[in-house]
Design brief:
The structure is a single chain. The protein is of the alpha/beta class and 274 residues long. Helix content is 44%, strand content 20%. It folds into two domains: 119 residues, Phosphoenolpyruvate-binding domains (TIM Barrel, Alpha-Beta Barrel), CATH 3.20.20.60; 133 residues, Pyruvate Kinase, Chain: A, domain 1. It has a five-stranded mixed sheet with strand order 7-6-5-8-9, with helices on both faces. A four-stranded parallel sheet has the order 1-2-3-4. The termini are far apart. Its cofactor is K(+). It is an enzyme of class 2 (transferase). Its EC number is 2.7.1.40. It catalyses: pyruvate + ATP = phosphoenolpyruvate + ADP + H(+).
Length: 274
């Protein structure tokens, strides 16, 4: 963390042994996200402990709003077969229901015989499971469990998610510099798409790791004659998540010094492309 400094490089820490489990809270505190490596972890820790610790780690990462990924032994069968086992599908289902942000395939895509099938099956299973999740209940659970009092920025971000549901908005638009505001919105797991528009290309790339975020890099040369908000609205329409006249909830954040996620405003507007 000290080596990275204030360069905005994101640090994802891998939990792969007993030492990582013992020191998890301190690791989480200085990390921007967590990867659970079940392959190496399973060598040092009993299998039943790995499953329980996975659930605990996912829950903690969700509560602090940091991305959590699961690596290794995801669809191992796809290394030499075209169909996953029911147990693998059940394992992925459980992780998605628990709140994991993503999976890291290794042998399935690095040396397996069916890398494309592995990705296709993973997408298919995750998409199906997510359609059954009650995101309103997830939002309320997060709101109940998060430590109080919460900061003003996080309060505005959580309110944006609540407001979008109550006014039946088509999407949430986040105008962000370093991505902090978008990550705060992502923490509260909106069922809607969250369009995060930024002028920083690195920020746009990094936001792909956060739940529900559809990042868009605003380039004044490409988006000529469009304000950053209009560019976000055009993008929302182009990917099919909103239509002209729909209500959209807009939040905006800015960087103060090196602090991310200083959310200052929230508003509800009809989407207009003019």
């Amino acid at each position: 963390r000290k080596l990275v400094g204030n360069s905005r490089i994101k640090l994802l820490s891998k939990i792969e042994n007993k030492e990582g489990l013992v020191n998890f809270e301190s690791i989480l505190r200085i990390s921007d996200g967590i990867i659970i490596d079940r392959g190496y972890l399973g060598v040092e820790v009993d299998v039943q402990i790995v499953s329980l610790k996975q659930k605990e780690i996912i829950s903690r990462c969700n509560l602090v709003g940091k991305p959590i990924f699961i690596a290794n032994h995801v669809l191992e069968t796809l290394c030499d077969q075209k169909m996953p086992l029911r147990s693998e599908s059940s394992d992925i289902t459980s992780a998605v229901m628990d709140g994991v942000d993503g999976f890291v395939l290794s042998g399935e895509t690095a040396s397996g015989l069916y890398p494309i099938d592995a990705v296709d099956w993973l997408v298919k299973i995750c998409t199906e499971v997510e359609s059954y999740i009650d995101y309103n209940e997830v939002f309320l659970d997060t709101l109940r469990c998060v430590e109080k009092p919460i900061g003003v920025s996080e309060s505005i971000a959580s309110s944006a998610v609540k407001c979008a549901r109550e006014v039946n908005a088509s999407c949430i638009i986040v105008i962000t510099e370093a991505g902090g505001t978008a990550r705060l919105v992502s923490k509260y797991r909106s069922a809607l798409n969250v369009i995060a528009i930024t002028m920083d290309r690195k920020t746009a790339h990094q936001l792909n790791s956060s739940f529900g975020i559809r990042p868009y890099h605003y380039d004044s040369l490409v988006d000529e004659n469009k304000s950053i908000l209009k560019a976000a609205m055009h993008f929302a329409v182009s990917i099919g998540v909103a239509r002209e006249g729909d209500l959209v909830v807009i939040t905006q954040g800015q960087v103060q010094g090196f602090a991310e996620g200083t959310t200052t405003t929230m508003q509800v507007l009809p989407l207009s492309l003019k």
